[in-house]
## 1
Amino acid sequence: MTPADTGASTTVGAAASVSASAPVSDSRMTPGGPGYRRMSLALFLAGVATFALLYSTQALLPLISGDMGVTAGDASWTVAAATGGLAVFVLPMSALSERFGRRTVMTASLAVAVTVGLLVPFAPSLPALVALRAVQGAALAGLPASATAYLAEEVTPKALVTAIGLFVAGNSVGGMSGRVITGWVAQEWGWRVAVGVIGVVAVACAVAFRLLLPAPRHFTPGSLRPRVLVRTVRDHLADPLLRRLYAIGALFMTVFGGVYTVIGYRLTEAPFSLPQGVVGSIFLVYLVGTVSASTAGRLVGRLGRRGALYLAGGTTAAGLLLSLAPSLPLVLLGLVLITAGFFAGHAVASSAVGKTATHGRAQASALYQSAYYIGSSAGSTVGATAFHAAGWPGTVGVGVLAVLGVVTITIAGTLAARTQRRPATA
């Protein structure tokens, strides 16, 4: 569901920690090597907790609408506030991770997020619920960029795409399990108990994460000087390739956020009229995302980065169009394709950010995460608004436009790469 993806420091010391020198590279973790399994499991669980908390209300929006007497658009703010909070705070949190360490920031972020998660069930009104969700999203901002920065510093470059794919796979498992659990629990005991259960699950994940994650070996504390941060951000935003990757992440997430915010309303209404528990189980489709994200490295190896993005965009578009059918099996197949395309595209784009940035990788990753979750917030609100105005075809229309944006940007990248190769060849 990142989401983003690598990181190092804006300072000379932190940049050196992710340099390509042989001694540092040789001491990093590799698949099958010491600490790699513990690290992979720890970050997988962090991904589970992040997405389970971040989207804990998404499958419950029809129940929240009914309980609080609000529209789909109003209820969607419980999702948009969380992703928006993350988008706003991911860059400042990445700067804190440069100074205080990746593991420290991730631990603190999870601690605050799970604490708020235990308070969410007691929100007395929609504004209070939205406010708590915004705080929760802001706290979770410490996870994505810090996790990928940790991986960039502690894992060998050849294993980086695979390691990030596993973290993204944890996102998909968290998104899936959170929605499935909340669906069935809410059907019996209401949405408040459902989000409370997710809070307890996230506590367990947070504790296991802290116990399992190996201490960093290549982190060098950086500076918190605002001038350095601003200069690094300006450098990243001036890079055409990074700008394209940020836009691609935002557009992919616009599709995903819109589809999964609205799908509950569509499936609980005629002609499907499914019960809440069954609607929650629909999110088992996320398992497809787990597979597609974890195999993104092999996909890039066969097709190249741009080829993988074309395939991911085409798969997502095919799923959107298929979901228009008035047949439940075809709608489910459409969701499978949307999910597979989204997670593959996200893993490819996010890992490319880490490889492209030559310095300040934590900030480069944070900017990707910010764009990614802005896309999620936009998709949630615009998708819900389109559904209210034109039904499911309206939401699909928003998604198709976003996919066309991904394809257009990728084509622009292909043309730019060809133009750069011509002088070199000459």
Note: The two ends are 43 Å apart (CA to CA).
## 2
Amino acid sequence: MKTLLALFVLVPMAVSATIRTVSNDINKPAQYPDIPPAVAAANSGDTIYVNGTQYTYSDFTVTKKLVIIGAGYNVANQFNLISMVNNISFFKDAGVNDGSGTVITGFKIYAIGVSGSSLGITNIKIFRNQISGISANTGTSNWTVYNNLITGYLNGANASSNFIIQNNIFFSGGNVVNFNQPSVVIDHNLFINDSGALSALQFAIVTNNIFTSSSNTLVMSNINQCTFNSNMSISTNISSYTPSNSFLANGNTGGANQSGSATPTFIGVNPQFVADGDFNTYNNTFNYRLSSGSPGHNAASDGTDIGIYGGTYPFPSGGAPGSGYDTSPLPPIPQINSVNIQNASVLPGQQLQVNVTATVNN
């Protein structure tokens, strides 16, 4: 595993930045035994690589701009070890502490949030993680959340603006709630069997998303002054408002001054995924790409497919479709897949022969 950490160091980074490595497995040591001491020692702009182990890392708070990269949340290699942490918080005060500008990728996380009475945290990038919940606070802005599995809330706290929420898979209760500031974009996501997948939204732009369920599940509630374009829902029970077809063009429905769809919108329509045996449940062996005959194929407002494989951040693959890793992309850095020692026993002065295979996860 020391070889793996050494490979990480080869990734081109800013000249002034320091790279720090973390492992909480005493049998595979790194520079730091846990994430909090690495964060405390880091300077703004540093990168922290967090090794995949069988252990959960300690909660930590980010008080400076950092790039924090885990090994992934479902890793298709011979080690099959992931980077797990329960809680990550961002903090900013009127002094030197400011976690704005941080990047988080490659983790299985219970919750991401903002600490206490922290001032507005800005310019956060969260991608290629599995997350149970994300919460913002007053003044939070310019967050980009993409290519994640989200199993709980993404809560704007009615005070967040300029949020980009793109190409994520929401399931097991995953939803977007409580955004009432302008410039919130919810685009090219997949919402699986979530009653109220969207709730308490105002001024949001909702485009090119797919909502699935095998029943008449309520798609959204308490939606006001939002814009909808090129969305698709299996359910016909779109909104708690009357009339309920908030996706339809020229309807002024789903709340005051509702903007209708300028491009095709699909209600009560099967998206025709390549392989999906259950519209109510996420399964990592399913293939959520649209078949060539799907009505959503090339039907998005940007000319790409509706759903997670179109748009600005098409969902990357972590393995072959059906393998269980297709929707588990690794962080976009070189990573070792296997290490094979050819001659485990050598005499003094002889060379140890090691065969290493690795990939770059674009």
Note: Residues 18-333 form a domain with the Pectate Lyase C-like fold (CATH 2.160.20).
## 3
Amino acid sequence: MPDGGLKDHCGVFGIAFHPEAAGITHHALYALQHRGQESAGIVASGEGGLEVHKGMGLVADVFDRSTLARLGQGTDLAVGHVRYSTYGASALANAQPLLVRYRSGPLALAHNGNLVNAAAVREELEGEGSIFQTSLDTEVVAHLVARLSDDGPEEALAASLARVRGGYALLALAGRKLIGVRDPNGIRPLALGRLGDAYLLASESCAFDAAGAEFVREVEPGEMVVVDRHGLRSTPALPPGRPAFCVFEFIYIARPDSDLQGMNVHAVRKELGRRLARNYPVEADIVTGVPDSSISAASGYAEEARIPYEMGLVKNRYIGRTFIQPHQEARDLGVTLKLNPLRKVIDGQRVVLVDDSIVRGTTSRHIVRLLREAGAREVHLRIASPPYRWPCYFGIDTSSRGELVAAVRDGEEVRRLVGADSLKHLSLEELVAGTGAGGCCLACFNGDYPVPVEGGGRLG
């Protein structure tokens, strides 16, 4: 469970030519809620035009029956979005999908990721007279498309994306078309599904399960898929770059029941836990994980080490991911409210605490203290990823490098800071071997960025 300072991705979903498009999108957004809890929105399209509803908060807070009935009336295409701000402030004006109207008609955009040159392109466009209504990098794409309105929506979108750099999964409703595009490096995930004759696009395959649909395949890096009345078409909109799928999807972001890069997320995390146990054994009485993203790795560690796995921490299910709170004070309070130690399990025990990552160290320090107050004799912290030393610019909005605890302290200093009896991280080599996926972005661990970033680390 990353500490305060890590902001999540967003989640996108789209469906084309299904009479229950709005309702299915609503269900899918519940499945993607873990990817963003600041705002949610749906734009639905029918022969009579577009319907839109967006709001701040969780999916359950934003949509009620009357709203869903209005969205579903006469519509059969829809795109939905759940957001945490990685670029642009947390405000209703920045809730997505973004709906704009220009000469060629309405255009709805739902975007997951970050465009690293958005500020420069925006400044150029403003200098030429463009007026922006939000602080979203998504709106940069909208303005670029509007300038190419004489072209078709597919051509305009492809040409616009050729002007920007970064990691993204972008969905668009343009006329009676659903369009999906994935960045040339494949940093952000995007998958294709099918429900009867309808096609679906989503950040994760778990959204297809919620919709009762089947997973077809992942959208390829640089690929554009278009669904219209004639069916599904695929075009190479952008030349593919160096493969760089975000490894943090495996470590933390994605739900364990999703499949990414042809692998189940739970199985990958469990393997990382096994590798932790083989490389960093310790004499202990119980193993426990930090709910929820570390449970799989903790179970793998326990099985490999032949130490009993116990539920040492109980999670309050009605509090969201603490790191997506917009302020540090709220994140700190969220940890206190969210996790409670099981004293009768922990008291007098030597505990192996497995977590997926350490960012600032604040959450880890708090959890170790909780375990000690509950009577733990020893707390050995095992992290199922390497030290997090470099900011991410492609969809996880980490703070400056100086605020990342492993970037400014060595392992022993971090151990003392969090208060553990021992602290060990999975090595970068073991992470790559454990994910089994070649071509992952590892920049948060080694500074090797797949896309040029001004002021960033090494570029590869």
Note: The two ends are 29 Å apart (CA to CA).
